[in-house]
UniProtKB/TrEMBL annotation:
Keywords: Membrane, Mitochondrion, Mitochondrion inner membrane, Repeat, Transmembrane, Transmembrane helix, Transport
Protein name in the entry: Solute carrier family 25 member 51
Alphabetized InterPro entries for the sequence: MCP_dom_sf, MCP_transmembrane, Mito_NAD+_Carrier
Species the sequence originates in: Lingula anatina
Protein localization: Mitochondrion inner membrane
Gene that encodes it: LOC106158772
Length: 324
């Protein structure tokens, strides 16, 4: 009797084992194709939303601190003037105009960074699921470029920011919403003047940033200290931001000149680049005028963004862990 019972138990266990092994195999496959941040579908989606929220919060902190420096750099890009001249112009215009045009970059940058970090993570996980054998660098670069192209949907806000920062339009456009209404009469295409340099800048700069952000952080000694981690995040983000903004500075100069015009023909990036190059005496050095303020601002901005983003993401994940 006992032998019959033992035989029956053995048969049941043997019938269950393949099913268990098959389930474990499928579960392992799902984990391998997903992000390293979480194996389950629910946690993956939750983590992606946290990327959007963390990117938005990092942008708010950054813009609030660096807007005046950005205004100085813009004046240098537009007029080819020196730093002290741009500072003197802002001083004469007074405090009431110092933060003029803030709503546009605040709205644009908060949405842009939210899309940048959130969509990158979303695209990366989708690519890993659909093309798991693709090289990791190609996966990251593709996701970064797609995120950069998605950011370009917010271009109308960047377009109005250029007009509001240009002193030539101080008496023409009252604020962001007024500028958007005025541009409407020129058609939808006017909102997207200068699209090509923006796609070029967003896609390639994102590929460099996400491709090297983690690798650069890994060069620092491993630590459990929140303060040291924050410093490492700041330094890695700051160095990458300064490098990327310097390399793409001429692209931004051309973009600014394309967008300073309201109405009329739409010259391409090459034609506009030639005009700007001629205006600056065919000197490449003058194409980089304002780059000192630019890389200083970018060093601070991307240091703040990277450190704030990582801090906010950790806080959100810690809150979720406590709830669970």
């Amino acid at each position: 009797m006992k032998q019959d019972e033992a035989s029956t138990v053995q048969q049941c266990m043997s019938s269950i084992a393949p099913t268990t092994d098959q389930f474990a195999s499928k579960g392992g496959q799902n984990i391998a194709l997903g992000s390293s941040s979480g194996p389950t579908k629910t946690s993956t989606n939750g983590d992606v939303y946290k990327e959007f929220i963390s990117g938005w919060g990092a942008a708010v902190i950054n813009i609030s601190l660096t807007f005046p420096l950005n205004k100085v750099m813009f004046r240098q890009q537009l007029h080819g003037i020196r730093s002290h001249t741009a500072f003197e112009e802002l001083r004469k215009e007074g405090l009431k105009n110092l933060y003029r045009g803030l709503p546009a970059p605040l709205l644009q940058k908060t949405c842009s960074l939210s899309i940048m970090f959130g969509c990158y993570e979303k695209y990366l996980r989708l690519i890993r699921q659909q093309a798991p054998k693709m090289h990791v660098i190609v996966q990251q670069s593709t996701a970064a470029i797609l995120a950069g192209c998605t950011e370009a949907l917010l271009m109308p806000l960047e377009r109005t920011q250029v007009l509001l920062l240009d002193k030539a339009y101080h008496d023409h456009f009252q604020n962001t919403w007024h500028a958007l209404r005025e541009l409407k009469s020129y058609g939808v295409s006017e909102y997207y003047r200068g699209l090509t340099p923006i796609l070029l800048r967003n896609g390639l700069s994102n590929a460099v940033f996400f491709g090297f952000r983690t690798r650069l952080k890994e060069q620092f000694p491993s630590t459990q200290s929140y303060a040291v981690n924050a410093i490492e995040d700041f330094v890695s983000g700051a160095c990458l931001g300064a490098f990327i903004s310097t390399v793409f500075y001429p692209v931004n100069v051309v973009k600014t000149h394309m967008q300073k015009t309201v109405g009329g023909p739409f010259p391409g990036i090459i034609a506009t680049g030639k005009v700007v190059f001629e205006e600056r005496g065919r000197a490449w050095k003058k194409m980089f005028r304002g780059v000192h303020v630019n890389y200083t601002r970018s060093f601070l901005s991307w240091g703040i963004i990277n450190a704030s983003y990582e801090l906010l993401r950790k806080l959100l994940r810690a809150g979720k862990d406590e709830e669970e």
